[in-house]
Every structure is written in structure tokens, then in C-alpha cells.
Design a protein that fits this description.
Elements (H helix, E strand, L loop, with lengths): L1 E6 L19 E2 L2 E2 H11 L4 E6 L3 H8 L8 E6 L6 H7 L1 H4 L4 E5 L2 E3 L4 H10 L3 E7 L7 E5 L5 E6 L8 E9 L2 H8 L10 H10 L4 E5 L4 E3 L3 H12 L5 E2 L2 E2 L4 E3 L2 E3 L4 E3 L2 E3 L2 E3 L4 E3 L2 E2 L3 E3 L4 E3 L2 E3 L2 E2 L4 E3 L4 E2 L2 E2 L4 E3 L23
Parallel strand pairs: 1-4, 1-6, 4-5, 8-12, 14-17, 15-18, 16-19, 17-20, 18-21, 19-22, 20-23, 21-24, 22-25, 23-26, 24-27, 25-28, 26-29, 27-30
Antiparallel strand pairs: 2-3, 6-11, 7-13, 8-11, 9-10, 9-11
Length: 355
């Protein structure tokens, strides 16, 4: 079995961060979200991985390399334009050959890994196996309808009137039967080749399509709110570790990870939180569920429930929360406004000034 990891796309919902960075490399607890998926694939025993890349291919390639640090053998597959998930399968045809494969969306986060679904797929080997989860608003997802036996009866992409609340998680398992399906479908109203249409084609011609409803946590980290929520979830599992410098005037409360070269001076850090390598926190408060990346500076400020990316600085700011601060951003306090009025009034003028 191989893995096909999708790491193209423009990440419009995370702009302006993704104007200069791949959305799959935005960090969660100071580790790119893409890495969690690669680690899950390796843990499931899959070694050969093809990563579909687009405009940010150089950045993805530099971050992942040949995959050896994950125990993987990684190849890169260019996708000239992000024309849909089924199109990604089309462009990966030569790489996938006649192997079964797991397709994993690189900006998705699945708690608990994918070992179980892969074992089930290998044992039963249906033509397609989908991961599903209940969601409160299925209109934003691909939605599955099951029959009385639990097999997939129909699929629809972002329906206005969903037939169920079961959304497709960004992990799919396929036999080579999917290659005929992706060639058979036409672009949707969005101008994309939808994987939901391809799987529906498999169903319509009588192929075996099964599903697993996951009970663990899943998020598509496509927007800031979801990024912060995943960051919170990962930090919940953080263990206290202090590899940097914490002076005697500082207080660490709860599970706080201080990475190598970091300095905490005259500050209070309440976990779960992580302070990245060579970062400096001085005269500040860092609250729960905050990730401060490497080479950052936080001085005379308060930060809570936020993600601060590499090289950013926050200085003299009273309170920041529920925020995503990009790489090398500078956040400072505004200059004071004088409490005075300066007037030039002509003869016989009238002026009203609220005090």
C-alpha cells in the first residue's frame, strides 16, 4: 500500500498567512500540521508516500525532504493547478500504479491515527473505504448517506440540503478501481473534479464502498478558528519539559514546554503552552493554549490562546488572545494620543467639545 498526501491548494481561508506560506506548514504546537499526517501514515505501516504539490512545492520539499526523518520514502508529484481531489488522483496515476493507497489531505488533523481504518481496509479490501464523522453543519463538507447495512449509498459535495450529518473526513482508502472512476467524472459547478463524484460513480456501477465512523477528534485546519482549536487539543497532551533558561523571577504553572535556547525572564507562563527554541519571553504573561515559535520575542506583553509563528515579536501590548501571528510580524503598542484639543477658531465662532 502507498499513501497519497495532498499538499497543494492556495489556503484562501488562512490568508494573509498563506500569501507567503503553505497552509500545510502552519504549525500546531510548533510542528507543521502536515507532519502530524505523515507521522500517522508512518505509524500505520505505510512507507511509500507521494506528496501532491502546487505553487508552494519548494517550501513543502524543503520541509519534508526525502521523508527519512519520518521513516518514509517520499516522492513529489506536481499538480499544475488545484483542480480537485479527483484531479490529484489523476496526476498521481503513474506513481500509484496498481497499488492500493490511502489518500490523506495534508491540512487535516485526525486524533488517534489511521491504523484501525487501514487494518479494516486491508482485511476486507472494498473498492473504497471512507472515514466519516458527525458534524453540526454538514453543508460545508462532502456528505455521505448510508443504507440500512451501513454501506455508503450516496455522496454529495457541500449540499444545500444535506441528507445526513455524516461528513467525509480527509482520509480515503482506495483500490485501483478509483482510477477508472476519476477518468469518468466531469468537472463540478466549482470547476473541479470532485472525489465525491468519483466515489459516487463507483457506487453507481456496483462497486463496494464502505465506511468507518470515527469517534476521535478531526479537524480541517483551513481557518484560524480551527487552527487555534487543534493547537489547544495538541497542547492538552503536552508534557512539561524545560530545556531553556527560566530565571528566578519567573513562574511556570502547569504543563509548560521550554525548548532549547529559549529564555523566560521575569515572566509568568501558564500551561499548557510551548515556548520555542531561542525565543525570549521577558516581563510578560503567556497564558494557556499558546504556542510561541522559535526565535520569537514577547516582552512587556500578554498573550493567551494564540499561535505565534517563527521570528515574530510582540512588545508592549496589553492583551492578545485568540490570534494567529505570522512569521516575522512586529506587534507593538500604539503611541499615546495627547489628551488636548488644538483649535484655530475665527471671530464669532461657536465650538462644542465633549469632555
Amino acid at each position: 500500500m502507498k499513501a497519497l498526501v495532498l499538499a497543494g491548494g492556495s489556503g484562501t481561508r488562512l490568508r494573509p498567512i498563506t500569501h507567503t506560506s503553505a497552509k500545510q506548514l502552519v504549525p500546531v504546537a510548533n510542528k507543521p500540521v502536515l507532519f502530524y499526517g505523515l507521522e500517522a501514515i508512518a505509524a500505520a505501516g505505510v512507507r511509500e508516500v507521494g506528496i501532491v504539490v502546487g505553487d508552494t512545492s519548494d517550501e513543502i520539499t524543503e520541509a519534508v525532504g526525502d521523508g527519512s526523518k519520518f521513516g518514509l520514502d517520499v516522492s513529489y508529484i506536481p499538480q499544475p493547478k488545484p483542480l480537485g481531489l479527483a484531479h490529484a488522483v489523476l496526476v498521481a496515476r503513474d506513481y500509484l500504479g496498481e497499488d492500493d493507497f490511502v489518500m490523506y489531505l495534508g491540512d487535516n488533523f485526525v486524533v488517534g491515527g489511521i491504523d484501525g481504518p487501514i487494518r479494516d481496509f486491508r482485511a476486507a479490501r472494498p473498492d473504497a473505504h471512507l472515514l466519516l464523522t458527525h458534524v453540526s453543519d454538514p453543508r460545508s463538507f462532502g456528505v455521505a448517506e448510508l443504507d440500512a447495512t451501513g454501506r455508503v449509498r450516496s455522496l454529495e459535495e457541500k449540499p444545500a440540503h444535506p441528507r445526513s450529518d455524516l461528513a467525509l473526513v480527509g482520509v480515503y482508502l482506495f483500490t485501483p478501481a478509483i482510477h477508472e472512476a476519476v477518468r469518468a467524472v466531469k468537472p463540478s459547478w466549482r470547476g473541479e473534479l470532485e472525489i465525491t463524484d468519483a466515489v459516487q460513480w463507483l457506487i453507481d456501477v456496483g462497486h463496494d464502498v464502505r465506511s468507518t465512523q470515527i469517534t476521535g477528534y478531526w479537524k480541517d485546519t483551513g481557518n484560524v478558528a480551527d487552527m487555534l482549536e487543534v493547537n489547544r487539543l495538541v497542547l492538552e497532551e503536552t508534557e512539561a519539559r524545560h530545556e531553556g533558561l527560566v530565571d528566578q523571577h519567573s513562574t511556570l504553572i502547569g504543563r509548560v514546554r521550554i525548548e532549547e535556547g529559549a529564555e523566560v525572564r521575569n515572566s509568568r507562563v501558564v500551561g499548557p503552552a510551548v515556548i520555542g527554541a531561542n525565543a525570549v519571553v521577558a516581563g510578560s504573561y503567556v497564558g494557556p493554549f499558546t504556542s510561541i515559535a522559535e526565535d520569537c520575542l514577547v516582552e512587556d506583553s500578554e498573550v493567551e490562546f494564540s499561535i505565534v509563528l517563527r521570528g515574530a515579536s510582540i512588545s508592549g501590548v496589553r492583551r492578545i488572545e485568540a490570534s494567529l501571528i505570522g512569521r516575522h510580524v512586529r506587534v507593538t503598542s500604539a503611541p499615546p494620543v495627547p489628551h488636548a484639543h488644538r483649535l484655530v477658531l475665527g471671530d464669532h465662532s461657536k465650538a462644542q467639545i465633549s469632555s
